[in-house]
């Protein structure tokens, strides 16, 4: 009699364990299916573009070919690079994006630190204004900004010294450089907010001991605070880089004629239509470029445009996630 | 002694002003002055002259024109707002779901994370534009290009509609789910940053809470609603606001305002439109912020 109850319990226990195990396995299978599905949705366009980039035009009309081309070719990439004028374009874009990114990060770090650690008359009001710059849509400021940079003249200084009206800065890099350097450029409010949140989270004792040891405010910032602020710096650098690289709003507003990737890629389909016949050597004849071929080149060009970002991402994706976690945006 | 400490604190505040000086200059000259100017422009007619521009005050005419005369503005504005109202819950739900998914431990998590954040990098207006332009060229018309793009999904939503309909879910809700399924790519693409924020929030929830809940016999489902959800709820507000701003940043309205200014050269009208747009956005933000912050749970 007495042996029966433990036996029953043992069966029950084993049953429960098996059930737990079973539901765990089921859940993990379900999870993998979900993750695979979402990953597929994200990766499919990129994979399609890669497949198209290496596909020979011969394969376009072969319905048996799905993703993996039968005839490989580098011709698409060569043509797309030719139309885009790729390497000079990339160099130009990189120079522009890197300089604006560095300026934006520097100015936003300064402002974030200023708001986090100093109280001065109106500091709360000013920070509320930073939040306002995040919330106001950029289209509100578009026209005045455009006119402002068409005749750039701070307080009439240019007129005072040279007697001429302001300088036309449109179609130069200056509008973006100035706005990034003054922490008012692309999503700068957000970056200031990120830095402020991080600096507020750092212990005050670090600064106090530096002050007691005789370091001035600026020196404390550069030698003590900045080296401790690697996570937000990485976050801001990465986001600023990516957003600047992809930005079409400000680039088309201020620099519609410039040699920048975002501007070029927006007009790329039209360019391909115009230049492809010449590159194929059929210009002036009755023959026209096959529209499917044109769209192949367009896809290849888009892939070339995002390739630098993807390659960069392969190297920094670990930092991307971890730095945001450590930034303390969360509070 | 008192005097000296006063100067010290004054020194500190001067130093603080020094730190925010670049931003302050930028704010005054490149935000505040355009901001005020754009109010002025919206009440005037602006003519661009070879050097500078001429303004003439015309009162509320621009606003009147935008609402009553312009054939597209009303429609585009309401469309963008409804689309936003549609998209925000979907993006929010998906990003919280994806973040919970990515937060659990499994093999290949690093790879999954890398893939999930890829859209943050690739979401770009220019690329999208070029892609659709490519399709238009292929087919010769934007209508067909759109249909073709939809067909490429290769998914017939009617199956879903009949399944959900037979299980007795109200029709309006079915419509919403079906739209969500059809837009899944769009939703996934625009939720990268939101997933990132939720993921960071999830990581900051102390694990002791889950241990206690497990010992008390709570299921995973219960501990999600009783622990995870309240703990990340402050970030729901952040994410809603971010999503709203983000969805407005490259909406059709912005595009339309841009075209009004630079294609039709009607700067005053464009400023008036931009202002009405700003007011609509601010009202939405204030209402949403107020409603959500009432319900948010703050741990500290």
Automatic annotation (TrEMBL), chain A:
One of its GO terms (biological process) is transmembrane transport. Pfam families: BPD_transp_1. It is a multi-pass membrane protein. Gene3D superfamilies: MetI-like. It is found in: Cell membrane. GO terms for cellular component: plasma membrane. The chain crosses the membrane at residues 25-47, 94-113, 125-147, 173-195, 216-243, 296-316. Keywords: Cell membrane, Membrane, Sugar transport, Transmembrane, Transmembrane helix, Transport. Residues 90-315 form the ABC transmembrane type-1 domain. Belongs to the binding-protein-dependent transport system permease family. This is Multiple sugar transport system permease protein. The lineage of its organism: Bacteria, Bacillati, Bacillota, Bacilli, Bacillales.
Automatic annotation (TrEMBL), chain B:
It is found in: Cell membrane. The chain crosses the membrane at residues 12-36, 84-103, 110-127, 158-181, 224-245, 266-292. GO terms for cellular component: plasma membrane. Gene3D superfamilies: MetI-like. InterPro entries: MetI-like, MetI-like_sf, UgpAE/MalFG_permease. GO terms for biological process: transmembrane transport. It is a multi-pass membrane protein. Keywords: Cell membrane, Membrane, Sugar transport, Transmembrane, Transmembrane helix, Transport. It comes from the Bacteria. Its main location: membrane. Residues 77-296 form the ABC transmembrane type-1 domain. The keyword Kinase does not apply. Belongs to the binding-protein-dependent transport system permease family. This is ABC-type sugar transport system, permease component. It comes from Paenibacillus catalpae.
């Amino acid at each position: 009699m007495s042996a029966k109850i433990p036996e029953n319990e043992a069966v029950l226990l084993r049953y429960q364990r098996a059930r737990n195990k079973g539901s765990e396995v089921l859940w993990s299978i379900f999870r993998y299916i979900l993750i695979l599905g979402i990953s597929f949705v994200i990766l499919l366009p990129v994979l399609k573009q890669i497949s198209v980039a290496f596909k020979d035009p011969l394969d376009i009309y072969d319905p048996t070919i799905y993703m993996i081309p039968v005839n490989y070719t580098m011709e698409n990439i060569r043509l797309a690079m030719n139309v885009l004028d790729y390497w000079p374009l990339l160099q130009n874009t990189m120079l522009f994006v890197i300089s604006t990114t560095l300026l934006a990060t520097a100015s936003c770090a300064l402002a974030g630190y200023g708001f986090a650690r100093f109280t001065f008359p109106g500091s709360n009001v000013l920070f509320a204004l930073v939040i306002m710059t995040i919330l106001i849509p950029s289209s509100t400021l578009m026209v005045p900004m455009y006119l402002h940079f068409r005749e750039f003249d701070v307080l009439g200084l240019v007129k005072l010294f040279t007697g001429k009206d302001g300088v036309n800065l449109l179609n130069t890099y200056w509008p973006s450089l100035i706005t990034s350097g003054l922490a008012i450029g692309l999503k700068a409010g957000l970056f200031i907010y990120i830095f402020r949140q991080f600096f507020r989270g750092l212990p005050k004792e670090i600064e106090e001991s530096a002050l007691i040891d005789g370091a001035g405010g600026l020196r404390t910032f550069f030698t003590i605070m900045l080296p401790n602020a690697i996570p937000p710096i990485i976050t801001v650098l990465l986001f600023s880089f990516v957003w600047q690289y992809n930005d079409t709003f400000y680039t088309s507003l201020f620099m519609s004629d410039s040699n920048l990737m975002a501007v070029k890629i927006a007009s790329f389909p039209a360019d391909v239509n115009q230049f492809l016949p010449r590159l194929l050597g059929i210009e002036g004849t009755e023959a026209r470029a096959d529209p499917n071929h044109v769209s192949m080149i367009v896809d290849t060009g888009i892939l070339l445009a995002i390739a630098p970002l993807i390659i960069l991402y392969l190297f920094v994706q670990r930092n991307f996630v971890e730095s945001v976690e450590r930034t303390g945006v969360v509070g | 002694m008192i005097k000296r400490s006063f100067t010290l604190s004054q020194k500190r505040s001067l130093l603080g002003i020094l730190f925010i000086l670049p931003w302050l200059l930028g704010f005054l000259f490149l935000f505040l002055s355009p901001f005020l100017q754009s109010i002025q422009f919206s009440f005037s007619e602006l003519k661009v002259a070879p050097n500078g521009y001429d303004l003439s005050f015309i009162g509320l005419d621009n606003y009147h024109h935008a609402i009553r005369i312009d054939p597209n503005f009303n429609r585009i504005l309401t469309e963008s707002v409804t689309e936003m109202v549609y998209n925000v819950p979907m993006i929010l739900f998906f990003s919280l779901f994806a973040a919970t998914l990515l937060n659990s431990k499994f093999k290949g998590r690093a790879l999954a994370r890398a893939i999930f954040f890829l859209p943050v990098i690739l979401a770009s207006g220019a690329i999208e534009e070029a892609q659709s332009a490519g399709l238009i060229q292929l087919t010769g018309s934007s209508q067909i290009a759109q249909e073709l793009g939809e067909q490429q999904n290769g998914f017939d939503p009617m199956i879903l509609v009949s399944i959900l309909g037979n299980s007795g879910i109200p029709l309006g809700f079915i419509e919403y789910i079906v739209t969500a399924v059809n837009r899944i790519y769009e939703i996934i693409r625009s939720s990268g940053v939101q997933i990132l924020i939720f993921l960071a929030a999830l990581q900051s929830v102390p694990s002791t809470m889950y241990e206690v809940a497990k010992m008390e016999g709570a299921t995973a489902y219960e501990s999600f609603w009783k622990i995870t959800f309240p703990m990340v709820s402050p970030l729901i507000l952040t994410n809603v606001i971010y999503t709203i701003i983000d969805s407005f940043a490259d909406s059709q309205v912005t595009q339309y305002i841009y075209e009004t200014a630079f294609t039709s050269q009607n700067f005053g009208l464009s400023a008036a439109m931009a202002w009405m747009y700003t007011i609509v956005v601010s009202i939405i933000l204030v209402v949403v912020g107020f409603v959500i912050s009432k319900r948010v749970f703050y741990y500290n």
